[in-house]
Write a structure and sequence with these properties.
By secondary structure, the chain is an alpha+beta fold. The chain contains eight helices and twelve strands.
Length: about 290
């Protein structure tokens, strides 16, 4: 049994502004990332490999707010965050406030597998990534005209994240999340994406990746909250995911999450106008949607 779900952020364009051409581009980007992860699972690969493959595809696309398409902070710079977690072992790795790592999710995995730490930040994380042979790029690589225009026009609240969760044929779960934060954030701001239990979590019950107002996900420990409800209250994945969204609403924030449990059940709730999302369930049924 295998299953995978991905998201490209809950900061979707308002429906009235989404043209058919733009919708097609976003859905094609989601489909590519979904396929990258699913092919790993179909070949008998590990859930950790699948979520990293999917997130790398999203980071490499200028359409989504991670990697290549990351938002600018108030200094017109990029500071990227990412994390991964292996549900079978509870190992986790993360990087935050990095500006030169092409694929932060791969740096997060390197932290997990090649160091004794969980979270590295800034220049230290970049130095470590270089030592591990990961691709570093000039900061201009992350430049996109649309994101810079959003900052200079003071388009507030543009946010988004990318993520993936997967169940592999051995019954193991994994989650990965990556983000550029939100437009106009203060330099040095770190959101929920690299915080284990806030925007990313996986154990033997479920794998969760969140997207939305990161400060609320941190305060609500929302990714872990889904797993905790399943462990301690015996709630189903859909019920636990809905409860997390209710908690998010109570924190006066918007967003969404994707999650998969060890039986292959998938949940993708959100309380924003839209959430770029896609999934393939254990029966091979494919979903790609925005609103």
């Amino acid at each position: 049994m295998i299953a995978i779900a991905i998201h490209g952020g809950a900061g979707a364009l308002p429906r009235r502004k989404m043209t058919p051409a733009a919708s097609a581009r976003y859905k094609a980007g989601l489909a590519r990332a979904l396929g990258a992860g699913y092919e790993v699972l179909k070949a008998g690969g590990k859930s950790l490999d699948a979520v990293c493959a999917a997130v790398v595809a999203l980071e490499d696309s200028p359409l989504f707010n991670a990697g290549r398409g990351a938002c600018y902070n108030s200094d017109e710079k990029h500071e990227l965050d990412a994390s991964v977690m292996d549900g079978a072992t509870l190992r986790a790795g993360a990087v935050a406030a990095v500006s030169r790592i092409r694929n932060p999710v791969l740096a997060a995995r390197a932290v997990m597998e090649k160091s004794r730490h969980v979270l590295l930040v800034g220049r230290g994380a970049e130095r470590f990534a270089r030592q591990q042979g990961l691709a570093l790029v000039d900061e201009s690589y992350f430049h996109t005209r649309s994101r810079l225009t959003a900052l200079r026009k003071r388009i507030e609240g543009h946010h988004g994240t990318v993520g993936a969760v997967a169940l592999d044929a051995n019954g193991n779960l994994a989650a990965a999340t990556s983000t550029g934060g939100y437009t106009g954030k203060l330099p040095g701001r770190v959101g929920d994406s690299p915080i284990i239990g806030a925007g990313n979590y996986a154990d033997d019950a479920c794998a969760v990746s969140g997207t939305g107002i990161g400060e609320a996900f941190i305060r609500g420990v929302l990714a872990y909250d889904v797993a905790a409800r399943m462990h301690y209250r015996g709630e189903s994945l859909p019920a636990a995911a809905r409860a997390a969204m209710k908690k998010l609403a109570g924190l006066k924030a918007d967003g969404g999450l994707i999650a998969v449990d060890r039986r292959g059940n998938i949940a993708m709730p959100f309380i924003s106008e839209g959430m770029y999302r896609a999934a393939i369930d254990p029966r091979g049924r494919r979903t790609i949607a925005i609103y």
